[in-house]
Amino acid sequence: MNFSSRLLETAVNELARLPGIGRKTALRLALHLLNRPAEEVELFTRSLMALRQEIRRCKVCGNISDSDTCEICASPKRDHATVCVVQDTRDVMAIENTGQFAGIYHVLGGVISPMEGISPDDLNIVPLIEKSSAGTIKEVIMALPTTVEGDTTAFYIYRQLENKGVAVSVIARGIAIGDDIEFTDEITLGRSILNRTPYPTGMQR
Ligand SMILES: [Zn+2]
């Protein structure tokens, strides 16, 4: 691309860093922003800065939150004895959309992957085990991806929770192995939480 403006080129380069955005799309977005009112673009950039600088992790569950404790963990209406273990925030959003789960979550921030060099220590696992040892949790529901990494992570957590008096279950899956739960439709996902089975029996498929 031959740019007539260095400023335009810089903006295109930055936009093209975003996932799924090629240079042509980046150019279209940059030109679009150029034609919008300055206040609108300022609001846009300020929202991105606030996202980056002000969002934090909930100190209870690890989910993305605007405050130290997320709205779900802070809610007295939720069942704090039932904890659903998920990979990331997108999974929390997907399960919340089903309206079928009244417990709380525990967000790992990924799954164990020796291939990518992600070990249990890199994930938010220890706080989950500590919470379970404290005796306030009755059930831990695994809602991890049906991949080798997801299964490895579920098994690792299961072993850590053994003999801690916590029931461990796994959500039922009506979906193909390898699908991330965020891509499952709401009805199927809602049903799979209601039809959860004890771990590790539920892992056999
Ligand atoms: Zn939380």
The string of secondary-structure elements, in order, is HHHEEHEHEHEHEHE
| N-C termini distance | 51 Å
Oligomer: single chain
Bound molecules: zinc ion
Largest sheet: 5 strands, mixed
Read across the widest sheet, the strand sequence of neighbours is: 4-3-5-6-7
Q: Percent helix among the residues?
A: 40-55%
Counting DSSP H or I runs of 4 or more residues, the number of helices is 8
- The radius of gyration computed from the alpha-carbon positions, rounded to a whole number of angstroms, is 21 Å
Shape: elongated
* DSSP summary, beta strand count: 7
Q: Which regions have little confidence, pLDDT < 50, spanning 5+ residues? A: none
Nearest-integer average pLDDT: 91
Strand content: 5-15%
Helix/strand/pairing class, anyone? alpha/beta
Note down, in words, how this protein is organized.
With 205 residues, the protein is α/β, with parallel strands linked by helices. It is built from 8 helices and 7 strands. It has helices at residues 6-15, 23-34, 38-54, 71-74, 89-98, 126-133, 148-161, 186-194, and strands at residues 56-57, 64-65, 79-86, 103-107, 139-142, 167-170, 197-198. Strands 4-3-5-6-7 form a 5-stranded mixed β-sheet. A two-stranded antiparallel ribbon has the order 1-2. Helix 7 links the parallel strand 5 (139-142) and strand 6 (167-170). Helix 1 packs across helix 2. 25% of the residues are buried. It binds zinc ion (ZN). Zinc ion binds at residues 58, 60-61, 63, 69-70, 72-73. Zinc ion (ZN) binds next to helix 4.
